[in-house]
Amino acid sequence: MRIVATIPDPMRMRVQARTEDGHPIEMDTDPPDGDGAAAGPREALLAALAGCTAMDVASILRKKREVPGRYEIVVEAEAAEEHPQVFTHIVVEHHVDASVAAEPLRRSIELSATRYCPVSAMLSRAVEIEHRYRIAGGASVVVAVTGPQGRRTP
Q: Distance (Å, rounded) from C-alpha 52 to C-alpha 91?
């Protein structure tokens, strides 16, 4: 895997990156150093986590014939105040409608969090990640907690 990133204008902080297949990825920072016209690198990292687990869970649910009509991932992170302001805690919450049963959803999230999602596995080496779900606006249910201390399930 290879990414090439350039800063077209060294006076601004916008980064234009391309994957080896040519897919563009843009990142920026807030003013005054940037224009705030794209996600920052840490936001892009959280988006990668959301995308990785969403693809896993959707694929596993499809194999279980449990396809939600609505599926959304919400990722929230806390960061240290001192530089380099690393993430200290991340919560990944899967929101689905009532068309999906709780047990297949729970198991799909557990498999993504503990076996399949490489972004989650890499981040878990440095930060604790809570993996949760919420069906049709109901209560938030913890599926697993992964992190430097290993994996826990409730």
A: 14
